[in-house]
Design brief:
single chain; alpha/beta; seven-stranded parallel sheet; two-stranded antiparallel ribbon; 9 strands; 37% helix; globular
């Protein structure tokens, strides 16, 4: 049973966590809201919620290292983090390397907002050789003469599609025309 880590997964990525658990993964969900984490963990015994804030660098790194020791290295990571927080990816990679070894192969699905420059992020994210890096960009939906942001279900569905098909880049919804953005 593979260990899957979802960073920022107790809200819009809750459906991804539940799907991963149904697929047989041991899922660790990191988030800041203890109530949301407990509610999500209560829906499937394979889901374990951990309250941590990635903006607290030293404490977050310690939490990751402890998680990987206890649950084993994560073979699949879904991370909803701002691209300016590339340090979180480096910390995750370090924890996985410490727990699984330098050659331990894993996948990172980096969830990004609609205005993200994927090429720029790809150049700046510190991805180790052992990691297969994927980008999931969240767009919007156009319905007739109006547009709206994606629902949590649509976001989770798009991330799941990316994982299932191993897309290197995947857009959920649309990004064009940009002037129709909500």
């Amino acid at each position: 049973m593979m260990h899957a880590l979802v960073i920022g997964g107790s809200g819009m990525l809750a459906g991804v966590c539940l799907w991963l658990a149904r697929e047989g993964h041991r899922v660790t969900v990191i988030g800041r809201d203890r109530r949301k984490l407990d509610r999500l963990s209560g829906q499937n015994a394979r889901i374990s919620g951990v309250s941590a804030d990635y903006s607290q660098s030293a404490a977050f790194s310690e939490t990751l290292n402890e998680l990987m020791k206890q649950r084993g290295p994560a073979g699949l990571v879904v991370a909803w983090i701002h691209h300016s927080e590339e340090r979180v990816i480096a910390q995750t990679a370090d924890a996985i390397r410490l727990a699984g070894g330098a050659d331990f192969a894993w996948h990172l699905y980096h969830v990004l907002g609609s205005s993200s420059n994927l090429d720029e992020i790809l150049r700046s994210v510190p991805v180790p050789e052992s990691c297969c890096y994927h980008q999931v960009q969240l767009g919007f939906v156009i319905e007739g003469d109006r547009s709206r942001w994606l629902t949590h279900e649509e976001i989770s569905g798009g991330v799941i599609e990316c994982i299932r098909h191993h897309h290197r880049r995947h857009v959920v919804g649309t990004l064009e025309p940009w002037d129709r953005r909500p």
